[in-house]
Amino acid sequence: MWENSGDPHTRETARVYVLNDAGDVWPFAGDLAATPGEDQSLVELDGRQIEAARLIQCWRWLFGER
């Protein structure tokens, strides 16, 4: 579980989703975009992490979703 390193007095944990196949990224981003609160999560692929909010933003731009 990833810990937010922002304010040490209010440690929060973010959900981390680990994807095994790059082909799953865009369908998964669409699912994240449709689920309230998931923009606070992290997504990991090949040992690299991205904030779900950034992934959702890219998905919306690529696919013209709002």
From TrEMBL:
This is Uncharacterized protein. The lineage of its organism: Bacteria, Bacillati, Actinomycetota, Actinomycetes, Micrococcales.
